[in-house]
Structure formats: structure tokens, C-alpha cells
Amino acid sequence: MSKSIKALAAFGFVAIVAACGGQQEEEVVIIEPVAAEPAYNKY
């Protein structure tokens, strides 16, 4: 194979690996504090 075909194949392989392996989404979990409801003992 010629050098240009080898270089093109290597570039394509690197591009595919970078596109598939570089995407890692982080999950963000927001925890809201639980506040007790006020209790009225008027009645």
C-alpha cells in the first residue's frame, strides 16, 4: 500500500475512535432539602 492510503486509514481510525470514545455524559443529580410542613394545633 502507498503511504497516502496508510495515512488516510490511520486518520480515519483515529477519527472514529475519538468520535465514539470521547463522549461521556455526566449525570447531574440535584437533591432538594426536605422541609417539614408546619403543623398548627389550633383546633
TrEMBL record:
<protein>
    <recommendedName>
        <fullName>Lipoprotein</fullName>
    </recommendedName>
</protein>
